[in-house]
Amino acid sequence: MTDDTALLVSLNNNPSWLPQEYIQKKIRQILCAALVITVLHLVLLKVFSVLLANRSASSAKTTEKTERESVASEKEKSIILWKASYQATHLLVNLFIGCFGIYHVYNLPSVADVTEKVVGLEEYAIFGCLQAGYQLWALPVGFFFVGETTIMMFHHIAVIVVSSRAIFCTNGFRYYIPFFLGLIEISSVPLSIMNAFKNDKSLIQKYPGAYSNIRIAFGLSFLAARVIMWLPRIMDFNRIIAIMILTSEEISSQAALGATFAAATVLTLMQQYWAFLVIRGLLSGPKKAPVKNE
């Protein structure tokens, strides 16, 4: 048995949960994060609603529509509003979390023993609170109003599972949390901008150069953060969890660790699948938006 394995065996004897008062405080922080993001989204929804109303009013002066076309147009406007405000909220939240993560990742000790990677560093549980609140907002909005894909629904749930261990458990594996739940979100900032272009194809026609540059920025940041930087960290993260599962004598502890291992593995597979799509997209170049006949 190696020294690291012996240490991990001993860590299995730690209490499963952090103190109750601490957990209650973190639950309040999660709810606060979800509330702040929800309010931000509602404000952006109102802003985009006003902007779209002004745009529609100017175009209505030159266009007459039937009643059926008006109803269809209103439904289309509603979808556009929700998607635009949803992407704008993602952009702002990911920018904050990503920059917050970058600061803490580069202030972590470059070398840490296995104990430091598993216990302590409770101050980094804030990343879990931010992400849990973020996903609790994204799940219902994405499902009911935006039409998020099934894979994204599973992504939100997997992030909540990993976040929950960092927030509530003594063995919270918080050493890597500023990276997994923080820094990597910086790659989602150009993604939000790129999705805004996709949601309004006229923007691609007007600003093809900007769209091409943002695609490249997204692709490079995604591959750097979610492949090159992600893989060595997740391998170490899952290695430690696997040893603790195999050496634990409690079924409940094995199940909880197994859930974290499974969620981290699912997230990794998703990142690599998306990386494949990103590389394919970069190699094929941007698709030209169809030109509408006026």
Number of strands: 0
What does the average pLDDT come to? 87
Strand content: under 5%
How far is the N terminus from the C terminus?
74 Å
Describe the fold and architecture:
The protein has about 290 residues and is mainly alpha-helical. Helix 2 runs parallel beside helix 5 and helix 8 packs antiparallel against helix 10. It is globular.
Q: Outline of this structure?
A:
Helices cover 78% and strands 0% of the residues.
Q: What attributes does this structure have?
A:
single chain; mainly alpha; globular; 294 residues
List the topology elements.
Layout: H1 3-11, H2 20-60, H3 67-105, H4 114-118, H5 125-146, H6 150-168, H7 177-180, H8 188-199, H9 201-206, H10 208-228, H11 230-247, H12 251-284
Helix pairs in contact: 1-11, 2-3, 2-5, 3-5, 3-8, 5-6, 6-12, 8-10, 10-12, 11-12
